[in-house]
Amino acid sequence: MHPTIEFDPELIARMSQRGPRYTSYPTADRFTPGFGAADLAAAARPGKPLSLYVHIPFCESLCYYCACNKIITHDRTKAVKYLGYLMREIDMQAALFAEDALVEQLHFGGGTPTYLDDAQMGDLLGHLRSRFAFAPDDTGEFSIEIDPRTVDGARIRTLRRQGFNRLSLGVQDFDEDVQRAVNRLQPEALTRDAISAARDAGFRSISIDLIYGLPLQNVATMSATLDKVIAASPDRISVYNYAHMPQLFKSQKLIRDEDLPDGATKLAMLGLCIGRLCAAGYVYIGMDHFAKPDDELARAQRDGTLHRNFQGYSTHAEVDMVACGVSAISAVNGTYAQNEKSLEPYYSRIDRGELPVTRGLVLSADDLLRRDVIQRLMCDFALDLPALSARWDVDAAAKLASELARLAELERDGLLTLTPDRIEVSAKGRLLIRNVCMVFDDYFGKPPAVPLQRMQYSRTV
């Protein structure tokens, strides 16, 4: 097994529990409707570098496993209307920041961002560039998620000309029976053609998403999928654990419970993924993510500059995230602000001349400290307590004394080592990093701020 990660199935089976993924701290169930557009405006810092996220919610077909905020439709007029409102929101967001606030990152997610046609995408990108200053192509990271079933080589070349330089492809599994069971038939040739076209077009980075735990999956099907993924040689690979929660996501009710692999099979598939990808030269970044050693994520982790946000791991830590579109979440200057989750309320707020913020949070000093702790553990698998104390002008060891004491049990289980100055997560503790972070979560297990807003978390492994 790769020296930076050790797969211990007995330990994982014993310790896995439901808990947050910590794309934010505090987690989204702590957001309150008391936070509104005025609070976001007050938090804005003109001139600070930015990361932009744009949410395009539309998809042509339903993938049964999907837990994203999406709208399944073939009515293209819906996208026309949405774009009009989205551009109006962009105008309002841009007004909060100086014209010279440099956009270092841009990410289009969904839904399926390429639901927009070439002209619509060009208009939207042109509008963004007219409102924000963008970093040059050789230093900025401008990414988009694509569906290889609906995007051909010509479209990929157009996306590159339009300014995107990173591409993410949903694959999930190459096995046809598995694809049929989740209503996502995607021949291998389409994925290979998309990757080839992206390389020819000059995309700097190509990422593939996989999921383990889908219906009809087993170790043999996952092994065959890994053969094909490794042969395609993407720069980054994400391997997500499918969380089956049909009570929350109606589309998952279309998946038959009897087709789902049992817990032992899921663990075996995870172990296979780790072993095969690390043997192929990929570095385990953490929380489902693998990257080639020369990828920016791997370099940032080695340098101690890796960051985690609502899109996962990132190389740009000191930027505010401005998120546009239905359900999108901004993270600006110690605040979180989430837009309306449904189209009509989103449109109504914009028609009233308001930013479409429906809820959010102003982080306290304690929140900021604990967020820093969780960030460093998630990204570095270590925490330097004197450095933490210096950053926040506090005696971190004293303030977190009860949490550090609780780590003794995890230390006995071999997840970490603890000294007066440092927490160091072990190779076999890295897969259970969420368990370690939960010790420092002052909200976990407490009632949410707003009734009926409690999140149902996936298992930590």
Automatic annotation (TrEMBL):
Cofactor note: Binds 1 [4Fe-4S] cluster. The cluster is coordinated with 3 cysteines and an exchangeable S-adenosyl-L-methionine.
Pathway annotation: Porphyrin-containing compound metabolism; protoporphyrin-IX biosynthesis; protoporphyrinogen-IX from coproporphyrinogen-III (AdoMet route): step 1/1
Stretches assigned to the Radical SAM core domain: 44-277
Class of this enzyme: oxidoreductase
SMART domains reported in the protein's UniProt record: Elp3
GO molecular function: coproporphyrinogen dehydrogenase activity
Reaction(s) catalysed by this chain's protein: coproporphyrinogen III + 2 S-adenosyl-L-methionine = protoporphyrinogen IX + 2 5'-deoxyadenosine + 2 L-methionine + 2 CO2
Compartments it resides in: Cytoplasm
Keywords of the record: 4Fe-4S, Cytoplasm, Iron, Iron-sulfur, Metal-binding, Oxidoreductase, Porphyrin biosynthesis, S-adenosyl-L-methionine
Xref: InterPro entries: Coprogen_oxidase_HemN, Coproporphyrinogen-III_oxidase, Elp3/MiaA/NifB-like_rSAM, HemN_C, rSAM, rSAM_horseshoe, rSAM_sf
Cofactor(s), names only, from the UniProt record: [4Fe-4S] cluster
Enzyme Commission designation: 1.3.98.3
Physiological role: Involved in the heme biosynthesis. Catalyzes the anaerobic oxidative decarboxylation of propionate groups of rings A and B of coproporphyrinogen III to yield the vinyl groups in protoporphyrinogen IX.
Family statement: Belongs to the anaerobic coproporphyrinogen-III oxidase family.
Subunit record text: Monomer.
Protein name in UniProt: Coproporphyrinogen-III oxidase
Organism: Massilia pinisoli
